Amino acid sequence: MTLAASDESGSDNLQQHWLHCMAAVAGQRDKASFMQIYDYFAPRLNSYLHGLGASPALAEELVQESLLSLWRKAHQFNPDKAALSTWLFRIARNLFIDAMRRQPNWLLSELDMEEEIDPHSPSGDSHADGLKVQQAIQQLPMMQAQVVYKSYFEAKSHSEIAEELQIPLGSVKSSLRLAFQKLRVFLGQAEGNPPHGYPDTSSKGEPS
Amino acid sequence: MKTPIRRQNPLALQPNHHPDDATLVSYAAGGLATALSITVACHLAICPRCRQRVSEADALGGHLLSHLPQQSLSAEHRQAMLDALDKPAADEPAAGHRASTAIASKETSAEADDLLPAPLQHLLGERFSDLKWSTLGPGMKQVKMHVGNSNLRLFKIAPGTCMPLHSHGGSELTLVLRGSYSDEIGRFCPGDVADLDPEVEHQPIADRDQDCICLIATDAPLRFRGIVPRLLQPFFGL
């Protein structure tokens, strides 16, 4: 099982590129820059939404809605808080949950909103190291990789994964927990280094 | 359509017990049953530690998304996208509604204490004092909610009430909203989440000073039909 394609040594350049594109979209309403984002992300969002179980028609509709949301809310994008891919992931996931569960989008988007109004909110993944995340993913043991895959790309619950893989529920939780603990080191602030002096009950040290 | 949400005072609560990382990751991945997702959202509203973890899990989602293989769209999709850019947004919620959800600072602390967590207000109204409890047994009352195909309920346990010894067959999350209880694992106070592995047996006892109100979410039993169903009965087999 491969979670992703090969290494992208140019991933930092790519991140920089998206920042320029987003600045042009937000500032000048630049359609050419927007379409560069579209050309890269639309087929990947389509892939993501298919995996979650959206029909081809719904997937295409949600791809367009996701990117339209990016176009309309570009001025709210804050690269200090999240990478563009993270932002798009949240948008597409929330739209999918809205569409499939017919639940109002307050469940998850409520939180995103809070991040926006909270001046002390964590700075998210702006320092995520794409290459190291990718290497760490590729080094995950099979079971952990499967559980991550089924969680993110099929939106399966712990119980559903336990049933499919014929393993105890506790093993699903521990596999996911272990995988995340390995990956989160590269996904932003490491353990014990809370951002912006935010109180963290799990760490005793003062943030640097 | 959306009614403004009133918030509890987030500084009043400092959780010591948190959801398992596996639960936070599944929340970010969109894999939690709705009831569990709501319960996590109530905890996140007051827990910066867990908000940070969820944003890291979102970043993992973003990373995975940008490395997915491409699945091409229909030929017309690109042009339709370009055309859509020029259309005005249809009934987008006004930007103003965000501001209205900030904490109402004029609330007295007693009024603020009566507010339910924001994610529950959509289901139950704003206030604890307006809840319609039904009696379940000596010292126990509940309010049941229907959310998708998972179970969410509020439990109110009289001071000193001892619950039956039990374990958790499926996924179950308990969030303390008021009062406190103690069990083999520790003392759980408002904002704390018990996210127990299924094999853990425990016997919570409500602390003696006041009623303990908990939000309890379980996966829907129907989703696991055929797989050890007797273990999957929610708390108290309801």
UniProtKB/TrEMBL annotation, chain A:
The keyword Transmembrane does not apply. InterPro entries: RNA_pol_sigma-70-like, RNA_pol_sigma-70_dom, RNA_pol_sigma70_r2, RNA_pol_sigma70_r4_t2, RNA_pol_sigma_r2, RNA_pol_sigma_r3/r4-like, WH-like_DNA-bd_sf. Keywords: Sigma factor, Transcription, Transcription regulation. Residues 132-183 form the RNA polymerase sigma factor 70 region 4 type domain. It comes from Pokkaliibacter plantistimulans. The keyword Transferase does not apply. This is RNA polymerase sigma factor. Pfam families: Sigma70_r2, Sigma70_r4_2. Residues 189-208 are annotated as: Disordered. Residues 38-103 form the RNA polymerase sigma-70 region domain. Belongs to the sigma-70 factor family. ECF subfamily.
